[in-house]
Amino acid sequence: MKKLIPALALALALASCGTPLLPRTQPLGVAGVDFPATIAATDDLSVSIRYGVGCGDFDQQVAKISRTATDLRLNATVKTRNVFLACPAVYIEKTLIYTDPGTPARTNPFEVVVNGKSYGTVTIK
Q1: Cross-strand pairs, 34
Q2: Distance separating alpha carbons of residues 115 and 88, to the nearest angstrom
Q3: What is the pLDDT of residues 30-89, one digit of tens each?
Q4: Looking at the DSSP assignment, which residues form a beta bridge with residue 61?
Q5: Would you tell me which of 12, 13, 45, 105 could form a disulfide with 41, CB atoms 3.0–4.6 Å apart?
Q6: pTM (2 decimals)?
Q7: Which residues make Cβ contacts (< 8 Å) with residue 92, sequence separation at least 6?
Q8: 3-state per-residue secondary structure call for the chain
Q9: Which of 112, 111, 37, 108 is nearest to 76 (CA)?
Q10: 89 — phi, psi (to 5°)?
């Protein structure tokens, strides 16, 4: 009985932290978005999404939500899982690249939106 009580207390403490190692998808914590200031209406547009890597993060992805002649809307996500080990206090920044083809042709101003936030416009020359 004396061994059962500490084991039960440990099990309850771990259960209160959430389900271990079950992944869930959530918006990626975007540190910044880079793209050219000007581009031709039909050229490929390269969008760099910078993000910080956290403890328990994996499978970072960027996907197009919509694309019109006036804007590009992207959704950047990450799968995370609960971890019970201490994470190192190190900030690592990585980059995801999305290349948008030039169809339909872009018009001025062309806005770039990631996870619902506008990161600016591209001037079409």
Answers
A1: 48
A2: 27
A3: 999 999 999 999 999 999 999 988 776 778 899 999 999 999 999 999 888 766 667 777
A4: 77
A5: 105
A6: 0.76
A7: 52, 53
A8: CCCHHHHHHHHHHHHHCCCCCCCEEEECCEEEEECCCEECCCCCEEEEEEEEECCCEEEEEEEEEEECCCEEEEEEEEEECCCCCCCCCCCEEEEEEEEECCCCCCCCCEEEEECCEEEEEEEEC
A9: 112
A10: -85, 65
CB 33, CB 48: distance < 8 Å:
yes
Count of CB atoms situated within 10 Å of the CB of 8: 10
Distance CA 31, CA 18 (A): 27
Residues belonging to the chain:
125
CA 26 to chain centre: 8
